[in-house]
Design brief:
696 residues, alpha+beta, 5-stranded antiparallel β-sheet, 21 helices, 22% strand
């Protein structure tokens, strides 16, 4: 039974206040340092028995208002298992009017210094005498406005009895213990549950954590700790603001009230990871409720969407690029239809006129030149498309050769038709008068495209071309025109395949829109680039061509057929005079054309529509065979083997409309002497035969 408060001096009151403050701080620090129930009880009891009492017991309120003794330590009894059945029963009997049952029932602390025995206090007095204690304070454990049990503080007969002031101290000191024990009990339940799920949660590649309604983490799986680069001691038992990044904490604070109302929450945040950079997280908060303890908590489920978002963005970008490419290709096909049909229409028209005016020699020549010009234009269009396809398929391989750069540059002057309204001016420095090594064909095509483009867009004025060799390793050519220039939006389309600066139906300049794209890619293959140096609306453009070249120490010059002058070409033509050449092709027009080319330089052609006919007529006097690769029945590859088996040892030159590099390589690796692509130019035909025939 509690006694009346005793009068205490100011000094005693000051000591009591100091004791209260010291105990409160120590126990608070213990509570927040551990979530292990047994460890927490040991630490709290040790602290109290050192400073305030001689013994401690803890009783929890269970289902059905049952009382269970969870902890007991006194000088004579170290744990509850040493109590006999009657002693334990005298402590936790629910009908007791004094002691733990009454404290829990009334939710009020109780000071008990037993007087002489009476019936009402017999049970609790029996307990105290059994554990050799004479004075006690029993304080209810209240967590979240719910009584979870009580804690008893005991003093032996050799110590001073508890007073009313010490009861007040005990009530204050026990407050943090209640919250700590509740968290520890709940943590223990989670641990027991997680042990069953650990086989899954510990290997799942998704960060998981449990947070109670005190905003404290009570569990974190290994992936969570890896993601935020934390050890377990830095996660479990810590408040959310100590663990999560600020951006996530803000969202947790906003959404916690709804989560504890049972409403699942989903949100996205960005986390700046020190190792992986900026990560995109989708975070799901799943509310949970412990039915036994009526405790609310929630699961934090984190999904890393960084790679998914990158993939989505890439797919979206690819989709947009594909849509833009489809639009560009549609425009390109419409433009190609115009570009191809224009020269084709001219070829057909002039050919028809030639057929009707066969007696007028002058008219025939004029129309023939027009047909030839339109045919070359059509061939350029087709070659441009094929070359771009080769580059995109990584089939365009350079063939470096040594040649005189100065002579090559000067030969360009005569390659463009005269225009009275546009002056074409070639400037050069002395540095280009030397031998270089690069792919001459690629370089020539780049310059033809860029200079031809400048000429086409300059209606009146000049196109100025300047060349310089820098440090014997970089060829720089600038093409400056005085044309209309272009706007910024037009510049952005310049080097894209299937795109043109002017896509309107009323555009003033013809073209496929492939020239600049093809030129840049060829320059890239040669270790350089083609760029727009400047463009001013109304004042023209300046294009810069840069090519990486090699300057050999010993100058070795090869002249191409394009650079051969009249006497040199005649020497080649004279070499073929009297040479017997078989032309084997299933196309009658092609047989006729090659025979005409050969006869015009003095050769003696024989034409056959099938390999079998040529084999039957084959004799030792044949010097060379021009063999089509694609024929019905026996193709060119099989025919070549048949010619060799019959004893033919001269050059067999493959002829094909397939212009891809792999087709040429396949033919040469199959022991053909050379490879000609249809349509075949007469000069190239003569040069190829001359190169492959032995010199007498």
């Amino acid at each position: 039974m509690s006694k009346n408060p005793k009068n205490t001096s100011l000094e005693e009151q000051s000591l009591l206040v100091d004791t209260q403050n010291e105990l409160f701080l120590q126990i608070s620090s213990l509570v927040f340092a551990s979530l292990d129930k047994d460890a927490l009880l040991n630490k709290v009891a040790t602290c109290l028995t050192r400073k305030f009492c001689d013994g401690v017991y803890i009783i929890f309120l269970g289902p059905g208002s049952t009382l269970s003794l969870e902890y007991l330590v006194t000088p004579s009894v170290s744990n509850r298992f040493k109590l006999d059945k009657n002693t334990k029963s005298s402590l936790i009997t629910r009908d007791n009017q004094i002691g733990p049952a009454n404290v829990i029932r009334m939710a009020q602390a109780e000071l008990f210094n037993p007087p002489e025995s009476d019936g009402s206090t017999l049970d609790y007095s029996h307990f105290l005498s059994s554990v050799r204690m004479s004075s006690s304070i029993c304080v209810p454990l209240i967590s979240r406005n719910e009584i979870i049990g009580c804690i008893g503080l005991l003093r032996s007969s050799s110590s001073q009895e508890f007073g009313f002031e010490e009861q007040i101290i005990a009530e204050e000191v026990v407050k943090p213990v209640a919250m700590g024990l509740q968290n520890a009990r709940f943590h223990q339940k989670v641990i027991e549950s997680e042990q069953k799920l650990s086989a899954v949660t510990n290997i799942v590649p998704t960060p998981l954590a449990y947070v109670n309604d005190e905003q404290m983490l009570i569990f974190a799986n290994p992936e969570f700790m890896r993601t935020f680069r934390l050890a377990e001691r830095e996660c479990v038992g810590r408040y959310t603001y100590e663990v999560f990044p600020h951006a996530i904490c803000e969202q947790l604070e906003k959404r916690e009230s709804q989560v504890f109302e049972g409403i699942e929450q989903i949100f996205t945040v960005q986390y700046d990871c020190p190792v992986k950079g900026t990560l995109d997280f989708e975070i799901k908060l799943v509310p949970k409720l412990d039915q036994q303890t009526n405790t609310k908590w929630y699961l934090v489920f984190i999904q890393d969407l960084t790679e998914i978002n990158k993939t989505h963005a890439l797919l979206q970008s690819s989709k947009e690029e594909a849509e833009a490419a489809n639009i560009a290709k549609t425009r390109f096909l419409a433009n190609m239809s115009h570009e191809v049909r224009t020269p084709l229409g001219s070829i057909m028209g002039f050919a028809e006129m030639i057929a009707f005016y066969e007696d007028d020699v002058k008219l025939l020549k004029d129309h023939g030149k027009r047909v030839l010009g339109c045919s070359k234009h059509l061939l350029e269009i087709i070659n441009g498309v094929l070359d771009l396809a080769k580059i995109e398929a990584d089939k365009m391989e350079p063939s470096p050769e040594c040649f005189d750069l100065g002579r090559f540059y000067n030969s360009l002057v005569d390659s463009f038709p005269e225009n009275q309204d546009v002056a074409l001016i070639f400037e050069n420095s002395a540095s280009i008068n030397r031998t270089i090594e690069t792919d001459r064909k690629f370089l020539r095509q780049i310059l033809f495209n860029i200079i031809g483009n400048a000429m086409k867009f300059t209606e009146k004025g000049e196109v100025r071309v300047s060349a310089e060799l820098i440090n014997n390793e970089q060829l720089v050519i600038e093409v400056k025109d005085s044309g209309p220039g272009m706007r910024q939006e037009e510049e952005n389309k310049l080097f894209k395949p299937f795109s043109q600066a002017d896509v309107s139906n009323a555009r003033n300049h013809e073209g496929t829109g492939l020239g600049l794209a093809l030129s840049r890619r060829l320059a890239n293959i040669l270790g350089g680039n083609v760029t727009l140096k400047s463009a001013v609306p109304g004042k023209g453009c300046v294009f810069k061509i840069e090519i990486t070249v090699v300057c050999p120490e010993v100058e070795k010059i090869n002249l191409s057929s394009d650079e051969l002058t009249g006497p040199s070409q005649l020497a080649h033509e004279g070499f073929l005079k009297g040479k017997k050449v078989y032309v084997v092709d299933d196309c009658a027009d092609f047989r006729f054309l090659l025979s005409f080319y050969l006869e015009s330089v003095g050769a003696l052609p024989s034409a056959f529509s099938t390999p079998e006919d040529a084999l039957q007529a084959l004799n030792p006097g044949v010097d060379a065979i021009l063999l089509d690769l694609q024929m019905p029945g026996t193709d060119g590859y099989k025919a070549k083997e048949l010619f060799k088996r019959k004893g033919f040892v001269g050059p067999i030159i493959a002829c094909s409309a397939n212009a891809m590099q792999e087709h040429r390589e396949n033919a040469l690796s199959s022991d053909f002497s050379d490879y000609l692509t249809k349509p075949i130019d007469q000069k190239l035909l003569v040069e190829t035969l001359t190169r492959n025939l032995p010199v007498n």
